[in-house]
Prior knowledge:
Elements (H helix, E strand, L loop, with lengths): L1 H27 L17 E8 L2 E10 L7 E4 L11 H9 L3 E5 L17 H18 L9 E3 L1
Parallel strand pairs: 3-4, 3-5
Antiparallel strand pairs: 1-2, 2-4
Amino acid sequence: MKYRFFIGVFLFLSISLTMASQAQAFSNEGLSYDKRLSNYSYPFKVENFGFQSQNKSLEMSYMYLFGTGNEQNVVLLHGKNFNGAYWEETARFLSNQGYNVLMPDQIGFGKSSKPKDYQYSFSALARNTKQLMTYLNRSLSLKSIREAKTFF
């Protein structure tokens, strides 16, 4: 009886360790991403906007979907530890409703630059997004950014 207990514990631990090592090998199999997620596919075409912030040259990646006949703009902002691709379904819905949809990857996230020694404050991220919107307003001849709707 004493041996049955030890055999049971041994089998349980052996099976648990085998399953854990297989799960670890499976979850990492074939995954290889650089810090700009170059090999990670986004649902829409990704563009880059170069600008200066906190004395650094940065690139903010973004996706922009043109709506079907509507000139109103919507900006979808991801939270920290997410990226613009997070908004795929919402962006498709809004675009089909006629809205132009902007989905930036904030600095430090997704395909955007990830500088060291950078203050990732909400005010800095907001300024960066405003610079992107001003650039797009000029380059895409969009309506004024003051008319853009922002959904969080």
